[in-house]
Amino acid sequence: QAFLSVTQSEITSGYVSYFGQTFELNAHFREKPLISTIVLSPLFALFAWRRYSRREI
């Protein structure tokens, strides 16, 4: 929500203030969550498959 109302002065300073909190404007702020999702999703799928394939139907 904060990134939808960024002003030109906030762009030049590199920071946005939203409800008293200051956030850095970084184009790659979603890089870490993307990498961890790519790595952890197959691991969680394997864990779930092993766990639920042992159940009796």
Describe this structure in words.
The chain is α+β, with helices and mostly antiparallel strands and 57 residues long. The chain has one domain. 51% of the residues lie in helices and 14% in strands. It contains 2 helices and 2 strands, in the order αββα. The protein is rod-shaped, with a radius of gyration of 20 Å. The N and C termini lie far apart (46 Å). The mean pLDDT is 80.
Q: In terms of topology, how is this protein built?
A:
Layout: H1 8-13, E1 15-18, E2 21-24, H2 31-53
Antiparallel strand pairs: 1-2
How would you concisely characterize the structure shown here?
With 57 residues, the protein is α+β, with helices and mostly antiparallel strands.
Low-confidence stretches: none
Largest sheet: 2 strands, antiparallel
Number of strands: 2
Which structural class matches the secondary elements?
alpha+beta
| Portion in strands | 5-15%
What is the H/E string? HEEH
Helical content class: 40-55%
The coarse silhouette is rod-shaped
Count of domain modules: 1
Give the distance, in angstroms, between the N- and C-terminal Cα atoms: 46 Å
Query: What number is the mean pLDDT?
Result: 80
Going across the biggest sheet, name each strand in turn: 1-2
Q: What is the gyration radius calculated from CA atoms? A: 20 Å
